[in-house]
């Protein structure tokens, strides 16, 4: 039995990048032989044997041999293995493409064999900003879209690639490559609707909503949840020219649910769409409005991210002001005799918080309405 390190771990070692995940290819072994060496391994593969052991994935070669497996993978830069002696085995084009920084399919049918690879390829474009998509990749992605191969794929798989792309150094390249190849539909219809829609008045915007969204995403790079908020914050403009905040919240929820994203993403995306315009006016809000806004954000643990979003969107950096207000609000406590009185306690606590916020501004603690 031979165990080879495979895929991204080998690629990253060649690129001098840190290796975070290690997957392995099992050669010349039956499942019984493998389990004899790794008795705690758990079988998860259905179409062909895949085991999980020690946090790593162990799979058998596609096509039955190492050489065939390397031609049946997604991209040449991932079609690499290293054996226990350190010897490298690679797709014929792999090392050249790594050196030339090219994203190329392993075979003429790579995207057709597994259409979710379209999103995986777009994710690698975001993960490796200095790599370019080859003509073959662009052609195969366009063919997958025109042949409607993207319809009916597993939502969890598309969503998983999306979340990985959101955490990449240049997340905009994920959506840009999908748009260029016609692959935004059917999974990202709300994003596609933003193409060609003016982002705002000419003095403030010279791009469409799609282009503006890409810029905001890149300004927020490295935080997947925050980048998702950047992606969703203006979705409403693709749905309506009036009242786009609430329309955007609906679009954000719809998109998040279609991709089967975690609830935290769906909720954060909806809040980004519905609240970002109001939040940009935070400095001029009444004390009561500030308190209500901060409490809504704190309930979702999104305060810092929302203020970072509006700064990336072009508003003033108001995070330090919000943190000052939060310190004053959190310092407020109800007297012992005013606690546990139901709504009366809640109303009094809010009033005291408004007074604390007002003391910082010199304004009266007027209600949010």
Question: Which key phrases capture this entry?
Answer:
369 residues; alpha+beta; Beta Polymerase, domain 2; cca-adding enzyme, domain 2; 7-stranded mixed sheet
Question: Roughly how much helix do the residues carry, as a percent range?
Answer: 40-55%
Low-confidence segments, given as residue ranges, are none
**Strand order in space, largest sheet:** 3-4-5-2-1-6-7
User: How many domains make up the coordinates?
Assistant: 4
Strand proportion, as a percent range, falls in 5-15%
CATH class of the largest domain: Alpha Beta
How does the overall form come out from the CA principal axes?
elongated
Largest sheet: 7 strands, mixed
CATH third-level topology of the largest domain: Beta Polymerase, domain 2
Q: What is the rounded distance between the termini?
A: 72 Å
Averaged pLDDT: 92
Please state the second-level CATH architecture of the largest domain: 2-Layer Sandwich
**Structural class determined from secondary elements:** alpha+beta
Task: Please state the CA-atom Rg, rounded to the nearest Å.
Answer: 25 Å
- Strand/helix succession: EHEHEEEHEEHEHHEHHHHHHHHHHHH
Report on the structure:
The chain has 369 residues and is α+β, with helices and mostly antiparallel strands. The chain folds into four domains: 1-100, Beta Polymerase, domain 2, CATH 3.30.460.10; 101-187, cca-adding enzyme, domain 2, CATH 1.10.3090; 191-275, no CATH class; 280-369, no CATH class. Helix content is 50%, strand content 8%. The protein has helices spanning 8-15, 31-37, 66-71, 94-100, 110-113, 117-127, 135-146, 155-166, 172-180, 189-192, 209-219, 224-232, 244-258, 263-279, 287-299, 303-312, 319-330, 343-361; strands at 2-6, 23-27, 42-43, 50-53, 56-59, 80-82, 88-90, 102-103, 132-133. The chain has a seven-stranded mixed sheet. A two-stranded parallel sheet has the order 8-9. A hairpin with a 5-residue loop joins β6 and β7 (88-90). It is elongated. The termini are far apart. The model has no long low-confidence stretch (mean pLDDT 92).
